[in-house]
Specification:
This is UDP-N-acetylglucosamine 3-dehydrogenase. Pfam families: GFO_IDH_MocA. One of its GO terms (molecular function) is nucleotide binding. By secondary structure, this protein is an alpha/beta fold. The chain folds into two domains: 147 residues, NAD(P)-binding Rossmann-like Domain (Rossmann fold); 147 residues, Dihydrodipicolinate Reductase, domain 2 (2-Layer Sandwich). The protein is 34% helix and 22% strand. The strands form two sheets. Strands 7, 8, 9, 10, 11, 12, 13, 14, 15 and 16 form a ten-stranded mixed sheet that branches. A six-stranded parallel sheet has the order 3-2-1-4-5-6, sandwiched between helices. α5 packs antiparallel against α10. The protein is globular and about 65 Å long. The chain starts with 5 loop residues before the first strand and ends with a helix. The structure holds nicotinamide-adenine-dinucleotide (NAD).
Length: 354
C-alpha cells in the first residue's frame, strides 16, 4: 500500500455506490473528497453519512471544482459513458465503472479508448473475477501446476446475459487466458429473443476460444451455475464462491475435491468488491493491473451481443470482434436508468445506512 492518500469522488451514490463509499471511507490510503448524485435528498443524507461536504448534482459541476485522483462511477449504465469520458478528459488518474458498462459497443469502445489514450487506469466493478481466490485459481491454471487445459463450460448463461452474464464471461476469459472468437447460440423464449433487453433471455450454445478450446454454454444452471475449466487430471469450478479444485479420481472414477489452501488476502471486509478496489488502487500506484477492467466488461458485453445475434439468426456462427460497433443489448430497466426512474427508489432512511 502506498503512503499516498488517494482523493476519491463517487459519482452515482445509490445502493451500489454506497457499498463503494463504505469501502473507500474505510481504507487508510483513500479519502472521499466529493460525491455527485442526481437525487438531492439522497445526496444530502450521503454527505452526512460519509462526512463529505463537497456535494454535486452531476459530474460536470464536480469537475469544475475538483479533479479527484480516483473517480468511482456507479451511475445507472445509461450515464456511464459521458461520466467516464468527462473524468478521463479532466485528468482523473483512475476510473472504475460497474456492470454492465454500456448497452452499445461503440459506447464501451469510446470509454476504453479515451482511458487508453490518456493513460487512465480503467477498472471494472464488483465482479467475482476480482475475488482473490478466483485470481489465484487462474494463476494455478496458467502456471501449469494443474496440467494443460483441455476444456471449458459455462453454466447458467441466462436471465440477463449482459447484466449478470458478464460475471461468467470475465471468469471464463481469465481461467482460459483466451478470448471468445466465434459463437453459435440458441435462445429462448422467443419473446426475449425479440426484445431489446437481455431480460429473461436464456442462451445455450458453443463458444470457440482463441486457444482452440470449444466451450459448451448451458443457459440454465446444471449442477453448477458458473464456469468449469478442466485439464486431464484436474477440474477448476467457479460456482459463485472461491473456486473448488478437483484433482485425480477415486477408485470409482469420481473426481476428488482437494483442499485449495488459498493464500490469505490482507483485505476481506467487502467481499469481492475488495479485490476489485485494492487491485485498482495498486494499478493507479503503478503496480499491476485491475483484476477486473473496463476492457473486460466491454468483452463481456460483446460476447452477450454476439450470442443474441447468433440466436436470432437461427444459430449462425458469429465471429468476434464484431464489425458492427453500433450493435447494442440493453440491460433490464433498473440497471439502465436506475431505481428512481423505475419505481424502485432507495428511501432516504435506507440511504442513511441504518
Ligand atoms: N456488480 C454488482 O454486483 C452490482 C450490483 C448492483 C448494481 N450494479 C450496477 O450499479 C449501477 C447502479 O446500480 P444501483 O443499484 O446503485 O442503482 P440506484 O438506482 O440505487 O443508484 C443510482 C444512483 O445514481 C444516481 N444518478 C443517476 N443518474 C446520475 C447521473 N447522471 N449523475 C450522477 N448520479 C446519477 C441516482 O440518483 C442514484 O442515487 C448499475 O449499473 C447496476 O447495474 C452492480
Amino acid at each position: 500500500m502506498s503512503d499516498i492518500k488517494h482523493r476519491v469522488a463517487i459519482i452515482g451514490c445509490g445502493r451500489m455506490g454506497q457499498n463503494y463509499a463504505e469501502a473507500y471511507t474505510t481504507y487508510p490510503d483513500t479519502e472521499i473528497v466529493a460525491i455527485a448524485d442526481a437525487n438531492v435528498q439522497r445526496r444530502d443524507v450521503l454527505g452526512a453519512r460519509f462526512d463529505v461536504s463537497a456535494l454535486y448534482p452531476d459530474v460536470e459541476a464536480l469537475l469544475r471544482d475538483i479533479v479527484p485522483d480516483i473517480a468511482v462511477v456507479v451511475t445507472p449504465t445509461k450515464y456511464m459513458k459521458d461520466v467516464v469520458i468527462a473524468c478521463a478528459e479532466a485528468g482523473v488518474k483512475g476510473i472504475s465503472t460497474e456492470k454492465p458498462i454500456a448497452a452499445c459497443l461503440q459506447d464501451a469502445d469510446a470509454m476504453v479508448e479515451v482511458c487508453a489514450e490518456r493513460g487512465v487506469v480503467f477498472a471494472g466493478g464488483n465482479l467475482q473475477r476480482a475475488m482473490n481466490e478466483v485470481q489465484e485459481a487462474a494463476s494455478r491454471l496458467h502456471n501449469g501446476e494443474l496440467g494443460e487445459i483441455r476444456g471449458a463450460s459455462v453454466h447458467g448463461f441466462g436471465g440477463e446475459i449482459s447484466g449478470g452474464g458478464c460475471q461468467h464471461i470475465s471468469v471464463l476469459r481469465l481461467f482460459t487466458n483466451a478470448e471468445v472468437e466465434e459463437i453459435i447460440a440458441w435462445g429462448t423464449p422467443p419473446e426475449a429473443l425479440d426484445a431489446e433487453t437481455d431480460e429473461g433471455l436464456i442462451i445455450n450454445g458453443r463458444f470457440h476460444l482463441t486457444n482452440g478450446l470449444e466451450c459448451s454454454v448451458f443457459g440454465t444452471p446444471t449442477s453448477c451455475r458458473g464456469v468449469d475449466v478442466w485439464t486431464d487430471e484436474c477440474l477448476v469450478r467457479w460456482d459463485w464462491n472461491p473456486p473448488e479444485i478437483f484433482k485425480g479420481y477415486d477408485p470409482h472414477g469420481n473426481r476428488v475435491r482437494i483442499d485449495t489452501n488459498y493464500n490469505p488476502y490482507p483485505w476481506n471486509e467487502f467481499s469481492y468488491l475488495t479485490g476489485s478496489i485494492r487491485s485498482f488502487l495498486a494499478a493507479v500506484d503503478g503496480n499491476g493491473h485491475p483484476w477486473i477492467t473496463g476492457a473486460d466488461l466491454r468483452q463481456a458485453l460483446e460476447v452477450a451481443i454476439a450470442a443474441k445475434l447468433s440466436a436470432t439468426r437461427n444459430s449462425t456462427p458469429v465471429k468476434l470482434p464484431l464489425e458492427d460497433r453500433s450493435l447494442a443489448l440493453y440491460p433490464r430497466p433498473y440497471r439502465w436508468i436506475g431505481g428512481d426512474a423505475t419505481g424502485k427508489p432507495q428511501s432516504v432512511t435506507e440511504a442513511t445506512g441504518f
